From TrEMBL:
InterPro entries: EF_Hand_1_Ca_BS, Peptidase_S8/S53_dom, Peptidase_S8/S53_dom_sf, Peptidase_S8_Asp-AS, Peptidase_S8_His-AS, Peptidase_S8_Ser-AS, Peptidase_S8_subtilisin-like, Peptidase_S8_subtilisin-rel. Residues 62-398 form the Peptidase S8/S53 domain. One of its GO terms (molecular function) is serine-type endopeptidase activity. GO terms for biological process: proteolysis. The keyword Hydrolase applies. The lineage of its organism: Bacteria, Pseudomonadati, Pseudomonadota, Gammaproteobacteria, Lysobacterales. Keywords: Hydrolase, Protease, Serine protease. This is Subtilase family protein.
Length: 702
């Protein structure tokens, strides 16, 4: 965790604009160490029941990470190899920015070792002609990102909590030359606050923060409402973005921003699954050897000490956690974080770290996994019974909650059981957890960009709608059960959620006879069009943009080679099958991707829309040599008028011919809502025989 308390061994320096409650000082981010994943299990992963949770969903949300940057070419993180091969890695450069340099500047190089302007220069730290030098101690952001979303498909067992969650890295540090150490990363408080705003405007669904400040007041934003962090939290709160922050590592009360009630405070447990605490001597001393004599920092998770203080929310592993690290480098030798620590070689790109800095990305990954199951569910608040959302699902399904144990000072609501939380998000049908759900593929059209764009994320849709240059507006059929996107002054009332197509939210099909499900990848490209045109001479379109969707790794590689930027996974569709039409799942239609050369735009549409789009000029193939037919999905059709489209009813096992499938007096959409967590079984009433629900067991057989 990036803890902003003074290190007695290093001279304090000022941040660009200090917080009202303290001056930022040169720090180290605090971290962990762990049982190796290779050849075994990570105690943290087992403690969260992740293995069983992945039988229900791997997750694919977009998660913002505000940190020191990451190793951009790390095999566990990169999306493409240098030769252009698609690796399924989750670091998404298109969403990432380096905003930490002082004086103010922004660039796209978020590598932890990227040269930075060095404050307080000294001949001890050689710099280039621009006064810049690479950071010498790196790895914190790489480790955090790996715990969140390390590549689960690269042949290693170092898998992130959320298998397919996209990582939008915001690098918020600048360099400081410290004699005897080298160039260290220091925290830019203004950049940290600005990152919230940027991420809120670009579609992040969860934001992970592994840093903190001790404000010495119970409610920081009540006392210091004009603090940039408080204003940034106010700005993004209405967007239904979930913010997670590390609780802190000095056995004190919660650091800020974890102490803010709008933020999920992520505390840490150790190998015994109890609160991480290295303290061995009785109070009031607390000066034992943790980690060194007379130094009490980095010795245990912060917690809540009284009901008058902010509440710890949940906990994850925080001691000796093993994962990806910047290859060949260490972050903090004193606290045992870096490539030199833990199993394996000293330059293999894996190592240990200790601290609630590691807990925060694990919890963020869990929340990202849950949001991917139903991205339409709000953030929620466990302390407000009137607002039920994803945070409530997590807090109500912890091991402690399942055992009837209420909130506690140390572990908060407890240690997440991610399998139980995933099943809660999926809902129950005919007495068992649903194996999948459908969700709208929101459709927008930008007259400035001349572009049809699609996303399953309301946060990404909102980001497109507030893009004033491209002039995006929603298009298609209104979505029943989800009347509005998260509010923003720039989203017009007419921009209600619209979608002609619904796709699946997890990778698991509901019947063994159906075609397998494949990811729907989102990419985009910006260029002046016609190609080579003079921007000052009409009809050159300088706002030209093309969002499109792909279903194969070969397609993604070809599009990437053609200049498209990879933006992650939106959900899943049925792969092409034979013989058609008998192999097509009931209620589904062919999904096409065809392009209009005159506008440099590609559209995705169902078979029932093909005549309309072809008449508009969407007939070309992009990328060349690949099929225009990319799979099967469901149309926005509700035969029985109960508020659930037929595709949802086919997937979960209710009847698309009866508004109240089980005859209990409650319509199916009331018992199994599109945009809320289901609290009732729609196939458990007196006429449950009308439900054709199937049970697909974990091993894939019925």
């Amino acid at each position: 965790m990036l803890a902003l308390q003074a290190d007695p061994n290093i001279e304090a320096v000022s941040a660009p604009i200090s917080f009202q409650f303290s001056s930022a000082t040169l720090q180290s981010f605090s971290i962990e160490q762990s049982v190796p994943l290779g050849g075994g299990t990570n105690y943290g992963w087992g403690g969260l029941n992740l293995g069983r949770a992945w039988n229900y969903a791997g997750g694919h949300s977009l998660i913002g990470v505000i940190d020191t940057g990451l190793q951009t070419n790390h095999p566990e993180l990169r999306s493409f190899t240098p030769s252009g091969s698609f690796t399924l890695g989750n670091f998404l450069p298109v969403y990432s920015l380096n905003i930490g340099a002082w004086p103010d500047s922004i660039d796209t190089n978020v590598d932890e070792r990227a040269p930075s302007v060095v404050q307080y220069p000294n001949p001890y730290c050689p710099m280039d002609g621009n006064g810049q030098a690479p950071i010498d101690f790196v790895g914190h952001g790489t480790h955090v990102s790996g715990l969140l979303a390390a590549n689960a498909y690269d042949g290693t067992t170092v898998a992130g909590v959320c298998k397919n969650c996209g990582v939008a890295m915001y690098r918020i540090v600048y360099g400081v030359c410290v004699v005897g150490y080298g160039v260290l990363a220091d925290f830019n408080s203004d950049a940290g606050a600005a990152a919230f705003t940027f991420l809120g405007d670009t579609g992040a669904q969860v934001i992970s923060n592994s840093y903190g400040f001790n404000p010495w007041v119970v409610d920081c934003c009540t006392n210091y409402g004009k603090n940039p962090f408080c204003e940034a939290l106010n700005y993004i709160q209405q967007r239904e973005i979930i913010v997670v922050a590390a609780s802190g590592n000095n056995r004190n009360w919660l650091d800020f921003p974890a102490s803010d009630p709008r933020v999920v405070a992520a505390g840490g447990f150790d190998e015994t699954l109890q609160l991480w605490d290295e303290d061995r001597d009785p109070p009031p001393a607390h000066l034992d050897d943790c980690p060194m004599p007379g130094f009490s920092d980095q010795c245990g998770s912060n917690r809540t000490f009284s009901l008058l203080q902010p509440k710890q929310e949940v906990v994850a592993a925080a001691r000796q956690v093993y994962g990806a690290i910047y290859t060949g480098f260490n972050w903090n030798m004193d606290f045992g974080c870096g490539d030199s620590f833990g199993p394996g070689g000293t330059s293999d790109g894996y190592g240990n770290c200790t601290g609630t800095s590691m807990s925060a990305p694990q919890i963020a990954g869990v929340l990202g996994l849950l949001r991917s199951i139903n991205s339409l569910v709000g953030a929620g608040d466990p302390e407000n019974a009137l607002i039920f959302g994803v945070r409530d699902v997590l807090s109500s399904t912890t091991y402690q909650a399942q055992a009837g144990i209420s909130w506690g000072f140390d572990l908060g609501y407890g240690r997440p059981d991610v399998e139980a939380a995933a099943k809660r998000m999926l809902g129950k049908v005919a007495g068992t957890a649903s194996r999948n759900r459908v969700t709208p593929l929101f459709s927008v059209y930008g007259s400035g960009a001349k572009d049809y764009a699609y996303t399953t994320s309301p946060h990404t849709a909102a980001a497109l709608l507030i893009n004033g240059v491209s002039n995006y507006v929603t298009t298609g059929t209104a979505v029943q059960g989800y009347p509005a996107f998260p509010p923003d002054p720039y989203i017009l009332p007419s921009d209600m959620p619209r979608a002609n197509t619904f796709i699946m939210t997890t990778e698991y099909k509901t019947r063994a006879s159906y075609p397998d499900l494949v990811p729907l990848y989102l990419l985009d490209r910006e260029r002046n069009y016609p190609i080579g045109c003079n921007p000052s001479v009409p009809p050159c379109n300088t706002n030209n943009r093309d969002y499109l969707l792909a279903t194969g790794m070969g397609e993604v590689e070809a599009l990437h080679a053609a200049g498209y930027r990879y933006r992650g996974i939106e959900g899943y569709v049925y792969q092409r099958c034979t013989p058609e039409p008998s192999c097509i799942p009931p209620g589904a239609e062919k999904l096409w991707r065809k392009c209009k050369t005159a506008d440099d735009d590609c559209a995705v549409f169902l078979e029932s829309q093909r005549t309309t789009f072809e008449s508009l000029g969407y007939t070309a193939t992009v990328p060349a040599g690949f099929p225009q037919h990319i799979g099967y999905a469901y149309p926005n059709v509700d035969t029985d008028g109960d508020g659930l489209i037929d595709g949802m009813e086919y997937v979960i096992g209710t009847s698309h011919l009866h508004a109240d499938s089980d005859g209990d007096g409650s319509p199916d959409a009331t018992e199994f809502p599109l945009a809320a967590v289901s609290n009732s079984d729609p196939c458990n009433g007196p006429l449950a025989g009308r439900c054709p629900a199937d049970t697909l067991f974990d091993n894939g057989f019925q």
